[in-house]
Amino acid sequence: DGAGVCCTCGGKDEKEKILLIKGPFCFVFNKETDPTPKYAISLAHMKTVMQPSSHGMHHMTIETSLGDKEWELSFEQENIAKQFADTFKQQAAVGEADEVRKVGTRCITCFYSEIV
Description:
Layout: E1 2-9, E2 16-22, E3 25-29, E4 39-42, E5 46-50, E6 58-64, E7 69-75, H1 78-115
Antiparallel strand pairs: 1-2, 1-7, 2-3, 3-4, 5-6, 6-7
């Protein structure tokens, strides 16, 4: 389950990108018609932080859990920015839970193997 959102990504070459959150990843496309994403961002241990609006745009940063800013995004519509942030938060939690399950399974398997 994902949410596609059109936004302007921050940086020197502010160009419109298509973002698709699916599971614990955000896929970044140059155009809606691109068959594959340009790259993917793992959402686990990341968060969105809303920034002050300016020039009719709604800004947010994507930051690590330690507060390092990794990406800057701008949205024309506030409701789309909020929807993106909510979906991002939910799927980041899914990604973190998946990591815990994988580590837990590995530990149990190793422990079980040692007993046998």
